Amino acid sequence: MRIASAGTIEAPLILWDTESHAKFSSDDHLMQGIWAGVIGIMVIYNLLLFFSIREMSYFYYVLFVFSYLLFQISLKGYGFAYLWPEALEWNSYAISVFIGGCNITVLVLIIEFLKLKETNPKAYRISQALAVVSSISFVLTFIISYSITIRLNSALALINCTMSMLLGYIALFRGHSDARYYCLAWTTTFLGIGTLGAVKFGLVTANFFTNNAGQIGVLFLVSLLSLALANRINREKEMRILAQESVLSSEKRLRESQEQLLETQTTINAQLESKVRERTQSMQRALTELEQANNRLELASTTDSLTTLFNRRHFESRLHIELKRAERHRRELSVILCD
User: Fold this and answer.
1) First to last CA, the chain
2) Residue 228: exposure state from Cβ atoms within 10 A (0-12, 13-18, ≥19)
3) How many whole angstroms separate alpha carbon 196 and alpha carbon 149?
4) Helix pair 18-53, 213-302: axis angle to 10 deg
5) Among 95, 126, 226, 287, which residue has the fewest nearby CB atoms (within 10 Å)?
6) 270, part of any domain
7) Domain-located, residue 125
8) Is residue 47 included in any domain, yes or no?
9) How far is residue 164's CA from residue 39's CA, in Å, rounded to a whole number?
10) Could you please report the per-residue DSSP string of 224-245?
11) Residues of the chain with pLDDT under 50
12) Residue 303 carries which DSSP code?
């Protein structure tokens, strides 16, 4: 038997009897279907969450998981069997294309989820550079030989996955609470992929679990990343609620202060009005007393103290007034004097 491929070759030879092979194939198809179904449900669920809350982390997560789902069904042959059975040329580089898609989306997800731009600027720049390289490699998949792009995209996938886990642990050590689930997700993925690699190199016995360790690890990755996103959204929601409660509490204290200020101002105004009334009444009494004193002085200056009759000063004052009136009305004026 002679096997040739532009990419990598994995052709384990196993002799089966008909019944055992049929049972194994049936069980394998069932497990692959369950795996793809679970991943598909996660894609749909998180896509609906994105449309609901408009959180970009969910969008990038959906792109990453969907890209990996397409990569896995291409790798297992289900894509060619059920989705594009007539597209032989496309099937020849589909695996490399979907690996490239995983590389781009996982880097964008890392940047958004860990908030690298704010928390780790250096890692942010490195992730941006890797995203640019991954994008170029993705485009080259449609241009140059599959044997080159599959190796390039696979190498980038290894680098990106390693960096994803390292950045997660760095964020965790810096106190990023959302990084707990993130680190656990990537650790289980590395354990799964590492177990699968050990099987391929003959270091671990091949069985159902070791042969599917990579898919099991990715299933944990997808689930735990979704949980990490949900945890972060809930924490941000709690922070918003606490912030709103703080604002409401501040507004309540402000209203209470305003009410106290208004009460104080009302009391002060009442006291001021009372003092103004007292001062006004005091001034009115003083003016009345002054007027009365002036009247008494006027009376004392125009009357004789012994007889209380009007004196000469009063006479001259009245005479002056009457002369003016007589002149104004052109009438005669007479004076009768009795001593």
Assistant:
1) 170
2) buried
3) 22
4) 10
5) 287
6) no
7) yes
8) yes
9) 20
10) HHHHHHHHHHHHHHHHHHHHHH
11) none
12) B
DSSP per-residue codes, 4-29:
--SS----------HHHHHHHHHHHH
The shares of helix, strand and coil residues in the chain, as percent rounded to the nearest 5, are 80, 0, 20
- pLDDT at position 8: 61
Give the residues across from 303 on adjacent strands. 310
Distance CA 277, CA 191 (A): 90
Domain carrying residue 68: 39-249
Tell me if 109 is assigned to some domain. Answer: yes
**So what's the pLDDT on residue 75?**
81
Question: Are 316 and 302 in contact, with CB atoms under 8 Å apart?
Answer: no
Distance between CA atoms of residues 26 and 45, nearest Å: 28
Number of compact structural domains in the chain:
1
Q: Rounded to the nearest 10 degrees, what angle do helices 146-173 and 121-140 cross at?
A: 160
- CATH number of the domain enclosing 134: 1.20.1070
pLDDT one-digit tens code per residue, 103-150: 898 888 888 878 888 888 888 888 889 889 989 988 888 888 887 888
